[in-house]
């Protein structure tokens, strides 16, 4: 079977699930005063089609000789880690392990089959029933034909800011660079560094107003230092950033064609994917989060791709505020899975990122 025929088969198998997922992403989020029912989660509608697509792709692809592992760095705060044990949801099928296909560079410096949560042991994160967007992201890349195998290098830590904790030369930054270099060295030519997923910004919105206003310049310096440190592995590391959202509900929906057309600016650079922070019902815990989101949106850097976080499911949690107000701090398991699929779909839809080995 030709590559074109395999891709047609894969697209047919996954299109229904993607459509269901996109429809779910554009539904308004529940407020803190609404009760959750037993309806399917945002990612549940895509799970069955995703599993079928995986089987179809595996059957169509046939044998191959030692495909390269596409390696992605995971960096940022707790929503990159996944902190959703308390959301009351089961683990989505989209986050299920895929032995031999999705790998993780673990806390002891070994490549192993990835399982949720891939950050277990990193900065003493416990082994608990939670997930980030990473597993669904990797699964989507494979199912969409953008990778044959995916390797994840977890380096995120919750509650950390960009102006101090992630500053170039500091512990978190040095650990991220060192773990990436060590992981690629262990690949011994079997892997290629493809990019970074960056979900961070809440902590910069919890400090002073000046620290929030400095986010843009701090990130620009941080990205330059990171790309310089990893230049031997990739000439200009791309990043995908998820952006904090503050638009009114009726304005928040994002046109998928607009997102896809923005991908053309990435080629031939490896993407950095930045998630722009959501701001709805988070302003008490993070009083300047809208400033950080505005700084993230204003960034215009080569190889930086941005995705809005609003529209993905959060769960209310008590963060110890006066009066006992609950805030939407962390994504649910379904929210993380849906975000991972959206990120993977955008990367996979770029022609230059289609699998070639």
Name the descriptors.
single chain, 357 residues, alpha/beta, Rossmann fold, eight-stranded mixed β-sheet, two-stranded antiparallel ribbon, 10 helices, 10 strands, globular, disordered N terminus
Structure description:
This is Sialate O-acetylesterase domain-containing protein. The protein has 357 residues and is of the alpha/beta class. The protein has one domain: SGNH hydrolase (Rossmann fold, 3-Layer(aba) Sandwich). The chain has 10 helices and 10 strands. The strands form 2 sheets. An 8-stranded mixed β-sheet has the order 3-2-4-1-5-7-8-6, with helices on both faces. The protein has a two-stranded antiparallel ribbon with strand order 9-10. Helix 1 packs antiparallel against helix 2, helix 2 crosses helix 4 and helix 4 (134-143) packs parallel to helix 10 (333-348). Residues 1-64, 245-270 and 351-357 have low confidence and may be disordered.
- According to CATH, the fold-level topology is Rossmann fold
Whole-number count of domains: 1
How big a fraction of the residues is strand?
Answer: 15-25%
Q: What is the class in the CATH system?
A: Alpha Beta
Unreliable residue runs: 1-64, 245-270, 351-357
Total helix count? 10
Helical coverage, percent range:
25-40%
Radius of gyration: 19 Å
DSSP strand count: 10
Helix and strand sequence = HHEHEEHEHEHHEHEHEEEH
Signal peptide: 1-24
Organism: Tetradesmus obliquus (Green alga)
InterPro entries: Carb_Esterase_6 (IPR052940), SASA (IPR005181), SGNH_hydro_sf (IPR036514)
Protein name: Sialate O-acetylesterase domain-containing protein
């Amino acid at each position: 079977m030709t590559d074109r025929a395999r891709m047609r088969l894969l697209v047919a198998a996954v299109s229904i699930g993607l459509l269901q997922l996109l429809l779910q992403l554009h539904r308004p989020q529940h407020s803190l005063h609404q009760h959750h029912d037993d309806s399917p989660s945002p990612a549940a509608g895509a799970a069955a089609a995703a599993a079928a697509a995986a089987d179809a792709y595996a059957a169509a692809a046939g044998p191959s000789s030692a495909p390269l592992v596409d390696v992605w760095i995971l960096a940022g705060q707790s929503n990159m880690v996944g902190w959703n044990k308390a959301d009351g949801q089961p683990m989505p099928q989209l986050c299920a392990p895929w032995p031999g296909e999705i790998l993780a560079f673990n806390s002891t410096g070994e490549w192993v089959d990835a399982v949720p949560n891939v950050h277990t042991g990193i900065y003493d994160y416990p082994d608990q029933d939670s997930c980030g967007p990473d597993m669904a992201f990797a699964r989507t890349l494979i199912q969409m034909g953008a990778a044959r195998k995916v390797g994840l290098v977890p380096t995120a830590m919750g509650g950390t800011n960009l102006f101090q904790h992630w500053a170039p030369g500091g512990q978190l930054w040095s650990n991220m660079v060192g773990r990436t270099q060590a992981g690629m060295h262990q690949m011994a030519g079997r892997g290629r560094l493809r990019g970074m997923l960056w979900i961070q910004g809440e902590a910069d919105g919890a400090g002073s107003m000046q620290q929030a206003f400095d986010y843009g310049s701090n990130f620009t310096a941080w990205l330059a230092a990171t790309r310089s440190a990893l230049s031997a592995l990739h000439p200009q590391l791309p990043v995908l950033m998820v952006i904090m959202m503050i638009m009114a509900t009726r304005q928040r929906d994002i046109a998928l064609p607009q997102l896809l057309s923005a991908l053309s600016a990435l080629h031939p650079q490896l993407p950095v994917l930045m998630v722009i922070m959501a701001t709805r019902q988070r302003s008490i815990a993070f009083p300047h989060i809208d400033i950080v989101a505005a700084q993230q949106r204003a960034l215009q850097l080569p190889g930086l791709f941005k995705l809005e976080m609003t529209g993905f499911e959060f769960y209310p949690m008590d963060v110890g505020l006066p009066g006992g107000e609950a805030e939407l701090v962390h994504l649910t398991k379904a929210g993380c899975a849906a975000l991972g699929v959206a990120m993977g779909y955008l990367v996979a839809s770029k022609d230059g990122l289609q699998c070639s080995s």
